[in-house]
């Protein structure tokens, strides 16, 4: 039985199927989902991202992993970069964790895998210098395996 205000497993499955079908039918430029993996393990998706043309990441390929809880879309997915090419970016830690507010306190059930991917591509595209966050070494040594358990401090909040 679902708790009031929280989706049940059927609602989550229906939402994920709908999002998967949308991305398969009309994928945004530079975004490709591993459809085979998503079809077999619906709560974990791998998404390939291309660095945007005319950005410092042009021609580079990245991979994101999305993990969905049974509270999705009311709870944000866990999203991390995986694989051998983690972008060097002021908001991306070398372990693949992404410091992006829509993945935590600014999450809304109106957001989707597609909108998260587009936000990450936009974040990468606006970058002018490849560098890690200033606290990368400390964070990577001390963080929880799940970025959702991090209390993020946004470095550019003080700007």
UniProtKB/TrEMBL annotation:
UniProt xrefs under SMART domains: UBCc
EC top class, as a word: transferase
Protein name: N-terminal E2 ubiquitin-conjugating enzyme
GO molecular function: ubiquitin conjugating enzyme activity
Catalytic reaction equation(s): S-ubiquitinyl-[E1 ubiquitin-activating enzyme]-L-cysteine + [E2 ubiquitin-conjugating enzyme]-L-cysteine = [E1 ubiquitin-activating enzyme]-L-cysteine + S-ubiquitinyl-[E2 ubiquitin-conjugating enzyme]-L-cysteine; S-ubiquitinyl-[E1 ubiquitin-activating enzyme]-L-cysteine + [acceptor protein]-N-terminal-amino acid = [E1 ubiquitin-activating enzyme]-L-cysteine + N-terminal-ubiquitinyl-[acceptor protein]
UniProt entry tagged with the keyword Cytoplasm: no
Keyword Oxidoreductase: no
Lineage of the organism: Eukaryota, Metazoa, Echinodermata, Eleutherozoa, Echinozoa
Domain UBC core: 11-159
Record EC number: 2.3.2.23, 2.3.2.25
Any single biological process term in GO: protein ubiquitination
Keyword list, A-Z: Transferase, Ubl conjugation pathway
Highest rank taxon of the organism: Eukaryota
